[in-house]
Amino acid sequence: MRATSRTFRSWVVVVVLTVVVSIGFSLLRLPSPWLFGSLVAGMAHALLASEELDVPPLAFRVGQALVGAVIGALVQLATLLRIASDWPSVVLVTFGTLAISVAAGRLLALDRDVSPVTGAFAMVAGGASGIVALARELGADDRVVTIVQYLRVLLVLLAMPLVTGFVFHPPTGAGSLAGSHTRWLPDLTFVVLAVVIGLLLQRVVTAPATALLGPMLVAVALSASGVLGHVSVPTALENLGYALIGVRVGLRFTRASLRSIARLLPLATALIVAVIVACGLLGLLLAEVTGTDRLTAYLATTPGGLFAVLATAADSGSDVTYVLAAQVIRVFAMLLLAPLLGRWFRRLR
User: Fold this and answer.
1) Long-range contacts, stretch 260-266, CB < 8 angstroms, 24+ apart
2) Residue 120 CA: distances (Å) to CA of 101, 110, 175, 262, 275
3) Are 276 and 96 in contact (CB under 8 A)?
4) Distance, CA of 35 to CA of 215 (rounded, Å)
5) Cα 190 to Cα 172: distance, rounded to the nearest angstrom
6) Residue 176's pLDDT is what?
7) Which mean pLDDT values do the consecutive 10-residue runs of the chain (349 residues) have?
8) Distance between CA atoms of 318 and 341, rounded to whole angstroms?
9) Residue 1: how many other CB atoms lie within 10 Å
10) What 3-state DSSP class applies to 98?
11) What is the C-alpha separation between 312 and 130, in angstroms, rounded?
12) What's the DSSP call for residue 137?
């Protein structure tokens, strides 16, 4: 009874700390603040408390399913139609970015503490929250993957305004990115259907990462079909999904693992910068091959920061539809290819 009471108090502390830190990160405009905040809360408990905690498996699967629904909701029918005419360039962007990511991951894996599968998923450009959600399930060290993935997102977000302003000199206020308020009934229906049907598929399909990929595919079908209108995952549920994943990962950190990850940061930072530059060069190639303007091509190939990319594209008057198509399909393809990539690296090992 005393142990149960102590566990309950520990969870209360972790939840309160998650809320406080996440709100602070939101005010600082960091990407995915609830994933970061819950990660910090979980780490704080793992490093400072004597009692071990872990997120129940069902709760973690629900977190994965919610993140899958968030990603699936980005795929609209208009996006798919846009890709129908530009599919060769989207394929070029997707597989070019994948090749760059795998090469960088192999270089990161030269460190004796990083396995090839961990290196690959740590450096995969696109779908950071989804990759973090399924990293451990696919045999990667999710602690390394989480830190390197979100270091990439931060560096991309820092580089984007500098590159856009000093290289392309676009006008500002040239366009707008339309948003919509939460429509609770259709949005909740969308989430429930995606999560429930997706998790039921997990019981039928014995494949890696189905807790994320199943709901994501159901969400794509619902979103693209338009049967519920324009739908999205309510912010509260989106944050809950990120928090469940972040706490799970954070609770697995130890002093030894942090020391190992800290030693990797200089190499990881250098490789991330190289990936950003390589993707920029891929954007220049895309512009030459397709005739797309260079700013649109750069934003379409930027390795991360989807919503910041879309806001920049809208404000500068770039082709938002093309940028959205290239970025979303790349994220979607990365997550679909992740289980195959993980299986391939395990066979090599």
Assistant:
1) 260/113, 261/143, 261/144, 261/147, 263/113, 264/108, 264/111, 264/113, 264/114, 264/144, 264/148, 265/147, 265/151
2) 7, 12, 37, 18, 13
3) no
4) 19
5) 35
6) 47
7) 79 95 87 84 89 88 89 74 75 86 91 87 82 83 86 82 81 52 85 94 72 86 86 91 89 75 89 94 88 88 79 77 80 80 73
8) 33
9) 5
10) helix
11) 23
12) G
Quote the pLDDT of residue 181: 64
C-alpha to C-alpha distance for 65 and 240, rounded to whole angstroms: 11
What is the separation, in whole angstroms, between the first and last Cα of the chain?
46
Contacts of 91 (CB under 8 A, 6+ apart): none
Whose structure tokens read 């980005």?
74
pLDDT for position 209: 64
301 and 326 Cβ atoms separated by less than 8 Å: yes
The span from the CA of 319 to the CA of 160, in Å, is 16
Q: Report yes or no: 311 and 177 within 8 Å, Cβ to Cβ.
A: yes
Type of residue numbered 270: A
Residue 167: which residues within 8 A CB-CB, separation 6 or more? 298
Look at residue 279 in the predicted model and tell me its pLDDT.
92
Q: Looking at residue 291, what DSSP letter applies?
A: -
Burial state string for 7-40 with b = 16 or more CB within 10 A and e = fewer than 16:
eeebeebbeebbbebbeebeeeebbbbbbbbbbb
Q: Which residues contact 283 (CB under 8 A, 6 or more apart)?
A: 294, 297, 298, 299, 300, 301, 302
Q: Which of 15, 24, 10 is nearest to 247 (CA)?
A: 15
Query: What percent of the chain is helix, strand and coil (3-state, nearest 5)?
Result: 80, 0, 20
How far is 186 from 198, CA to CA, in rounded Å? 18
